[in-house]
Amino acid sequence: MNEILDYFKKIDEVDVENIPPTYHVVNIVNVFRPDEVRVFDANKIIKITPRVKERYVKGPKAI
Amino acid sequence: MKSYILKLPAVEIINRIKGQEISAEEYMIKLFERIEREERKIHAFITLTKDSALSQARIIDRKIKKNEKLGRLCGIGIAVKDNICTDGVRTTCGSRILENFIPPYDATVIERIKSEDGIVIGKTNMDEFAMGSTTEYSYFGPTFNPWDRERVPGGSSGGSAAAIASHEAGLALGADTGGSIRCPSSFCSTVGLKGTYGLVSRYGLISYGNSLEQIGPITKDVKDCALLFSCISGHDSKDSTSLPYPAKDYTKALVDDVKGLKIGVVKEFFGEGTDEVVVKYVWNSIKKLESLGASYDELSLKFLEYALPTYYIIAMSEASSNLARYDGLRYGLRVPNKSYDWNTIFSKNRKLGFGLEVKRRIILGTYALSAGYFQAYYLKAQKIRTLIRREFDQIFKNHDVLICPTMPILPFKLGEKIKDPLEMYMCDIDTVPANLTGMPAISIPCGFYHNLPIGLQIIAQIYREDLLFRVAYTFEQN
Asked: What is the pTM of this model?
């Protein structure tokens, strides 16, 4: 792991003063779409949940 | 009888099904006979969907008989990488943590291939969460290269490329975060395209590095690739990073002519560590395109040597955030002990569910994003990304495409690089720039050296897939 981090240090050689970051390559902002309700079959979703009680997801003990 | 049909390009198979030379059902039966034989040697698939594929084929045969309108992918068997969600079909991402995950919905690309009458035949093997370049990191065991079973098929979409190379599928879908479509295409002698970021919807793609990854085709030839890409690309309102353009018909870009095109040959793509054989084959390909009327000149990209560490810092950072959702509570692996508290159970689930390489990337990514290191690693990498993109933009002002190797080396033996992660990362040196910049890149076969395939990579400016198809098609036809 340290070897990998050492390799990452290679980027220190580059001067990035006044260079803006590119978090995303496409310049699209504020994307909206109609807020349409999509109904999923609850049984289909609950079927893949490891622990269930009735139709609820069962979490670990809180207290 | 008719078993040769499986070796034809998908476009030919589709035409024969539409022309009723073979029924969709007959083709599908033959395909699964082959899959059953080949899988013992190749292990391209994690899950097969034979029953639903056969019933889909019968539905298509009825449509044909009734003279109904047929989709562009009519009846063809499509192998889908196992990080693309399929309604009702197990989607594991090559991981133990999702071993029994059955998505309740289809990814947009799956909806699209179904609406074009394409048939999903199964889910293909991959490195766990697409983290790897050999498919050896799959929880379900490795895939073997159909050209030489002692060697890796490349990765992370190794199952999809191996399925195409061994004629176990007509078409295949892969996904490419740092070369995961192009690398196995190079190693398996298939055609693989990562399109412009945002052209293909990521809705239903299990995220690894979300600002880098794209779903794309892996196919037998360039024409098949253009067809599948035309079917899956185009705006999707369910993906907020989807570009607001309608789908194009890229088969129109299949022009056998490169006269007047300008090719850039960047010397850093042929740098230290590149196999001499690969260099020779790629140069021969460039000369061939020159003889067909294109011209080339040699260039240098100052920041290209920083692309690999930049890519890995960004990819790992995004991965550490994207994989935070796997807690084993709502879905996924959950350890049975009931007495654990929340933190303990999440940790136990993740410890048991994730493999070594995934854990390594989560830890390194978390480190690169942590307070104090954020600026030195993550932010700095994003700034270098800007510099790399600017350099590419500059080159594309007076060049149409860049040509370079897809992989710096020939397909290597299983186990050869798995012990040294850094050496494994180095394999991605020529493929990651297209992901960092969002630019489209295709890998096409350019020959064999002692029965081992070599891939040629063509890169173009954003939205210029048409140029990739034109150059790739011309190269393939001549």
From this structure: 0.97
